[in-house]
């Protein structure tokens, strides 16, 4: 395993993007409203079928396998040039299980009652999307979440594109020549009076300052990202540590080299400083921490080669891969004050027309910390997304 790690690392040392090709071709959902679709009523199927295996070493994170799919069937209607309405059902299924937690599927243990759905995971899906101007869009209901936020790896684990519930709440999307912003609230757990679980929601900001055109040979930019999660409410029945507020933030500088050669297409380098802060509560054993992250990636034909380095001091990520954190997910009382992770890997992705795409990725992580034996872990997955649309009627 260590030998394989060195081969991959050396192979990408000179050509190694931050937002992965699989993000762009498999995970990201199109969030544009096309004026020419005014009056169209259609039926759309959106599905990712996946098989992902994580062979993790050490006590930071236990290995696991994810075999399954999620499926979203919805009716889409665009009554005006700037308004799109979508409604349907979202399902999640893992092969070999018949029981799914009913509320806030991701990280339910701290604030969810012992309540389950049986047979298959089912959720209603409803989205209202309004284009307010050339630059600004408003989304209510099921927002464009996951990879669409374009968060850096230490803040968001790409695996959540397979396992997390659709994000629901409100969202503002702004895009201009020199600045992009995605601002959202994801309401993860709602409570009534005397409920025995916690209210929970996440606020997010993902923005990018663009110093020149994205089509320039060398494009420079700065990502600025913030995540804050609040758990607790005035009307629940939990009396001890019932309010928790956790925050992550990142700011950095990046460069795209748009090489545009026949095989070698693009090189991206990005450096970010990160912070963690527990503003209220004692959910985590440390109250604040810092980290930095460097990533280098290269697009070579349909492959993306990637490598990076992360180092943190008492840093905890709300939604990132636990390897970008100082706390063990196996025993949350175990804290490694100074930890570092080197990672390397590759992705292969391919599109089949406009509505079908395939992705394969392999990642290797090597972690170090005082009091922790150096461990090397491995992860690999294959993903197929289908997203056909069928026109039912043109009004």
Please outline what is shown here.
This protein has 3 helices and 19 strands.
Strand content: over 45%
What low-confidence regions span 5 or more consecutive residues with pLDDT below 50? 1-20
Shape, per Cα inertia axes: globular
Classification by helices and strands: mainly beta
**Rg computed from alpha carbons, rounded to a whole number of angstroms:** 21 Å
The SSE string, one letter per element, is HHEEEEEEEHEEEEEEEEEEEE
Mean pLDDT value: 86
What is the CATH class designation? Mainly Beta
Biggest sheet record: 16 strands, antiparallel, barrel
- Tell me what the CATH architecture is: Beta Barrel
Under CATH, the topology can be stated as: Porin
With strands numbered from the N-terminus, the spatial order across the biggest sheet is 1-2-3-6-7-8-9-10-11-12-13-14-15-16-17-18
Total individual domains: 1
Instruction: Give the tally of β-strands.
Output: 19
Distance between the termini: 59 Å
Helix content: under 10%
Structural notes for this entry:
It is globular, with a radius of gyration of 21 Å. A 16-stranded antiparallel barrel has the order 1-2-3-6-7-8-9-10-11-12-13-14-15-16-17-18. Strands 4-5 form a two-stranded antiparallel sheet. The protein has a single domain (2-29, 133-383), classed as Porin (Beta Barrel). The chain is mostly beta strands and 395 residues long. Strand 17 and strand 18 (372-386) form a beta hairpin. The chain contains 3 helices and 19 strands.
């Amino acid at each position: 395993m260590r030998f394989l790690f060195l081969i991959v690392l050396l192979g990408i040392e000179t050509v190694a993007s931050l937002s992965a090709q699989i993000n762009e071709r498999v995970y990201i959902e199109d969030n544009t409203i096309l004026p020419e679709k005014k009056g169209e009523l259609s039926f759309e199927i959106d599905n990712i079928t996946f098989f992902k295996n994580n062979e993790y070493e050490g006590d930071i994170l236990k290995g696991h396998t994810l075999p399954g799919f999620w499926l979203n069937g919805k009716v889409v209607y665009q009554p005006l040039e700037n308004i799109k309405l979508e409604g349907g059902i979202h399902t999640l299924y893992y092969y070999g299980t018949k029981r799914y937690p009913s509320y806030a599927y991701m990280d339910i243990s701290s604030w969810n009652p012992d309540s389950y759905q049986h047979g298959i995971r089912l959720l209603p899906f409803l989205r209202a999307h309004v284009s307010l101007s050339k630059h600004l869009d408003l989304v209510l209901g099921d927002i464009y979440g996951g990879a669409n936020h374009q968060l850096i790896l230490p803040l968001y684990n790409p695996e959540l594109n397979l396992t997390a519930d659709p994000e629901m709440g409100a969202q503002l999307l702004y895009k201009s020549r020199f600045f992009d912003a995605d601002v959202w609230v994801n309401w993860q757990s709602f409570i009534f009076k005397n409920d025995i679980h916690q209210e929970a929601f996440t606020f997010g900001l993902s923005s990018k300052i663009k110093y020149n055109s994205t089509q320039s040979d060398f494009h420079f930019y700065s990502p600025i990202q913030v995540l804050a999660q609040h758990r607790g409410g005035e009307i629940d029945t939990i009396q001890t540590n019932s309010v928790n507020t956790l925050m992550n933030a990142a700011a950095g500088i990046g460069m795209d080299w748009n090489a545009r050669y026949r095989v070698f297409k693009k090189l991206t380098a990005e450096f970010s400083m990160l912070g963690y802060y527990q503003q209220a509560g004692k959910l985590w054993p440390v109250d604040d921490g810092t980290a930095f992250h460097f990533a280098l990636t290269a697009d070579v034909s349909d492959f993306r080669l990637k490598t990076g380095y992360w180092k943190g001091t008492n840093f905890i990520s709300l939604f990132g891969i636990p390897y970008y954190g100082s706390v063990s997910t196996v025993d949350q009382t175990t804290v490694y004050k100074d930890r570092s992770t080197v990672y390397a890997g590759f992705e292969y992705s391919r599109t089949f027309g406009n509505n079908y795409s395939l992705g394969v990725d392999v990642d290797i992580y090597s972690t170090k910390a005082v009091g922790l034996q150096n461990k090397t872990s491995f992860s690999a997955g294959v993903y197929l997304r289908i997203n056909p649309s069928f026109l039912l009627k043109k009004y």
